[in-house]
Specification:
Elements (H helix, E strand, L loop, with lengths): L21 H6 L6 E4 L5 E3 L7 H9 L3 E6 L5 E3 L4 E3 L16
Antiparallel strand pairs: 1-2, 1-3, 3-4, 4-5
Length: 101
């Protein structure tokens, strides 16, 4: 395991694509917390959620860094290097996020 992230060049200022986990909203499913892809703005659910859509998005796209998004938590995580990442800022939410859990 790396002691630092080697993917910080992929961090972008993004606009969240949905007001909740994109896939859970389509399924009518619940989530626990949300994660924001800092490459493309995909909003997915965390690993404590039933479907783990943020991790699935990483596996499908290779986009390595997520932000703790709901609520905005100020931290990032690199799936590849398995380390916390200093994002330098937090992404504002586009509106109220529906609560399921």
């Amino acid at each position: 395991m790396s002691k630092h992230c080697t993917h910080t060049d992929s961090i972008a200022h993004v606009v969240p694509g949905t007001l909740g986990c994109a896939e859970c909203l389509k399924l009518g499913s619940i989530w626990v917390h949300l994660r924001l892809c800092r490459t493309c703005g995909h909003v997915g659910c965390c690993d404590d959620s039933p479907h783990r859509h943020a991790r699935a998005h990483f596996h499908e796209t290779g986009h390595p860094i997520i932000e703790g998004y709901d609520p905005p938590e100020g931290w990032g995580w690199c799936f590849v290097d398995k380390v916390e990442v200093d994002l330098g800022d937090t992404t504002p939410q586009n509106g109220p996020i529906p609560r399921y859990v």
